[in-house]
Design a protein that fits this description.
Layout (H helix, E strand, L loop, with lengths): L4 H14 L5 E5 L13 E5 L9
Antiparallel strand pairs: 1-2
Amino acid sequence: MRLDELSKSIIVNTICNNFSEVFKIILFGSRADDSKKGGDIDLLIETPLPCISLL
């Protein structure tokens, strides 16, 4: 995984501060694979409630 602990902590804290309840946070794409290149961070956030108002 190409994210340091501080970056992971900031991402998780930011998500948890903006969603009332989070079931799962999944990192995927190039940042999840040490052998790939790429700069973006792909996240899937599972919550029990619709979050259309946050988009």
